[in-house]
Amino acid sequence: MFKHRMRFIGMGVMILILILSMVSLSGLTTHASASLSAGARRPAAVVRTIQGLHQLSVVGSTQLIVDATGHTASEDANPYGVAIVPLTPTTRGGGKVKAGDLVVTNIGNTDTGNTLVVFPQQAGPGHLFNTIPNAGTSGPADEAFNSATGTDWVANVSANDVQIFNPSGTLLKQLTSPLFNHPWGMASNHNQPNPVDHATGSFFVTNVKDATIDRIDIVPTAKGVTFPVFQIGQLPMAGTETKIGVTWLPALTIAGKRLTDVLLAIDPGENRIAAYPNSTTANTTATRSSSKGITVFQGKPLARPGGFALNPLNGDLLVVNLDENTLVELNMSASTVVGTKLLDNVPDDRQTGNGSALFDVAATADARGNLEVFFTEDNTNTLDRLSL
Fold it and tell me: pTM to 2 decimals?
């Protein structure tokens, strides 16, 4: 009897152990499933280069826009420059442009366009930005915003001057200089001071007729602000017109050497990117510098580069090519090609320029931190987006 009872108890213990084991395994399975589920919900890594971007879309037209009266109007389009409105006290709200908006210049079919178009919150339709488009605006090419005041500086190629617009779209100032020879490229040094002439900031402008690069200093005086102009470089002519894009960055390392206060310039004649270090203080005399700068990158995949911008996520250079309608990303410090993207598959004519679509580019991060690239599309008269 005792033996049978012990056998019964032993069997009960074995059954209890088996049940506990099954419960334990069930718990482990549930935990593993939860871990897999959590892993599936883990957010993807942030895309920092153009290689991870595959979606092309249209932001809006620069030809059919909303005019000052709120009606749709057809303008002399051919979009050229594109710029992202910076965050300043004047662009927080209440003006015609707000931080993050996109502004595009319409250079026009014969370089005599007269409109700037704003895309609020980076979306269409486009709205007229310059409130008085007939007030001397003729062939607006590249543009750059003042990161302190929110004013938009525009290279006005056919009018041979530089126009400065308030965030409200009204014309603030029209600058002229004997050094201007049909301004084309435009860049800001983000208010880097120049102690030589007491400038509180500078803008750089290039000239299409003689391939020169000028610096416009902003100098406050007791009688008001003055804008002295100095020539800091000159590149080889590429035909009758040399279209030089420019952008500025505080520092750049090339071949192990760190440069500061660097202006980058497109050299279309030599198919290269040139760097001008100490650009804010270089030459404050009447002597016209003919410096060709330091070569940052040269040759393929550059193919008659049109415009460029810095990748805000990694400091790479994003360049659009006129000859192949491609976007190229370059790591300047390592002189390597990060990636290439075809943005328009229309064949381009190398002799006439017909089919060349890409003139300028701007980049930012989307709401999730991924790289987002905007570019002007001349074949369709639109502002387009390359995104994740």
Answer: 0.88
